Prior knowledge:
Elements (H helix, E strand, L loop, with lengths): L4 E6 L11 E6 L4 E6 L12 E2 L4 E6 L5 E5 L4 E3 L3
Antiparallel strand pairs: 1-2, 2-3, 3-4, 5-6, 6-7
Amino acid sequence: xxxxxxxxxxxxxxxxxxxxxxxxxxxxxxxxxxxxxxxxxxxxxxxxxxxxxxxxxxxxxxxxxxxxxxxxxxxxxxxxx
Length: 81
């Protein structure tokens, strides 16, 4: 499913209600962004995520709880619906 996991954050923003309370992370190689229930037990089932087209090197969280993906080339992208 992924080759190089880039850790993320639990979503606390308001722009994407479906992500509320979910852990958002990505795969550097495929550029896919995934999420799972932050309260998941040790074994979790993941979906296929969504293709971002980025080499995700990091994530960031704004003061408002919104999340951003950092592309390896230096660009910053806000995660939006």
